[in-house]
Amino acid sequence: MTDKNNCKHLDICGGCSLTQNYEEQLALKQEKVKTELADFWKKDIPITPSLNTIYHRNKVELSFCNQVLWKDGKPPKKEEPLEFEKTLGFRQKKRWDRCVNMEECFIFSPHLAKIKQAIYNWANKENISFYDSRKRVGTLRQLMLREGKNTDEMMLVIVSTQNIDVPDSLLKELSEIIPNINILCAINDAPSDATPIENVKVLQGKDNILEKLVLSDKEISFRISAKSFFQTNTKTAELLYDKTRKLVKKIKPKVVYDLYGGAGCFSFVVSDLCEKTFCIENVSSSIKDGEHNAKINNITNVKFLEASVEDYLKLNKIPPQDSLVIVDPPRAGIHPKSCKKIANSGVEKIIYVSCNPKTLADNLTDFTKNYKIETIEAFDFFPHTNHVETMVIMNKINNK
Q1: How many whole angstroms separate alpha carbon 177 and alpha carbon 122?
Q2: Which of 13, 185, 265, 355 is catalytic?
Q3: Whether this model's pTM surpasses 0.85
């Protein structure tokens, strides 16, 4: 599968949306970024491939699904009685209400299928209901797994709509598959799967895992909790962070503003290259992880501020002198009002890291009024999917 994805579920599973060989995938992503940014950049856009195209993700979320049984891959006819099945896996392609009952998977860990099957068998034996997305009923909802690719630590979170009893026998079985696995449970009883989990409880081990970024001239440790944001492809993210360090060494800012900073990855990557960094993040658990991460790395010049970027910029102006802005927003991009404020800040350089070239293009409409694009480079963090990461370096236009 290092070149072409040979998973048995490839045709129906939404975990992988691209089926071409890997070189073709890279070409498609390059063209996608080039097309979206054509109004701002006419040159070729290089793409850095993923260092691994199997077992590359450090986080996956599987869904429990109670769904109508499709025989031979087709829905039943109207006159046929409905039969139901329980599944646990990724969503089916182009379906929000159905899942693939996963038997193998190559994007997270060789142990994923065994872990899935152990939990699936336990839930069926205990007759615990699976979530029905159409009716919005059912107990078991999601299964989240996180893995430290440089530490081999693993976390498993069973997400349900109400409290459940997880027997010691299941904990033991899972520990036989992954020794020292950290097992948690959490609640999501909201209509959307995307709603943040609540009431996170430890069933075995601890409430976090340790991961490391191993860069060319620096190593950083990170505590990652169930709700923390962390780039999903550790090994390829290290290449992007190395690139960032090289840029910051040349820029030599005194202060770095790390917007949408999560648990402080960019802040820690550049902390030794500036006097101070401000990490702005609105997820409380990420802030706590970041503050802990600063301590375990003996970093004292990173200040975490719990606020949305929008609220922070309403109350604070970024000083233009000796400042650098690094912005890494979610897929929705930067809020238009915040984008205008950053674009009018007057800082000499901006590093924009985007996971969505479409919203990146929207934001560049504002940025390019005051900034000239120096370089654009893509990074493939997401093999076998349509997603691609893009880094844009911008220089302030000096109108004299």
Answers
A1: 15
A2: 355
A3: yes
